[in-house]
Write a structure and sequence with these properties.
The structure is a single chain. The protein is mainly alpha-helical. The protein has a domain at 24-102: Cytochrome Bc1 Complex, Chain D, domain 2, CATH 1.10.760.10. Helix content is 54%, strand content 0%. It is built from 6 helices and no strands. It has helices spanning 2-22, 26-35, 38-42, 62-70, 86-98, 111-115. α2 (26-35) crosses α5 (86-98). The radius of gyration is 19 Å and the shape is globular. It starts with a helix and ends with a helix.
């Protein structure tokens, strides 16, 4: 029983460290998103634009986002570890997850309705 308790107590700091390494800071992520010009294609709120996909509230998990940013498809440039670290991408992920999701088309009033 004592050995089991010792093993559990030794594992707790490792689990806490691993958890904190995967958590991101949304404010830092926003700064990086702007600094690295992600907004140019994806919009300042991640809602997409002329050249970029809608990425606010992405369905990817943080590891999926990191993999995609490292080896993207299409016209997006690759961001290597020299440009953005995994922690910086985790911060960007936290920012993207903090953004509101896009409204459903049925919830967007027509411009003509706004004029009335």
């Amino acid at each position: 029983m004592k050995k089991l308790l010792l093993v559990i107590l030794m594992a707790v700091p490792v689990a806490v460290t691993a958890q904190s390494a995967t958590s991101g800071n949304a404010e830092k992520g926003k700064q990086l998103f702007m600094k690295q010009n992600c907004y140019y294609c994806h919009g300042t709120t991640g809602q997409g634009g002329r050249d970029g996909a809608r990425i606010a509230q992405t369905a990817l998990n943080v590891q999926g986002l990191i993999r995609y940013v490292r080896k993207p498809a299409g016209a997006m440039p690759a961001f290597t570890e020299k440009i953005l670290s995994d922690q910086e991408l985790t911060d960007i992920y936290a920012y993207l997850k903090s953004l509101p999701a896009a409204k459903a088309p049925k919830d967007v009033p027509l411009l003509l309705d706004q004029v009335k």
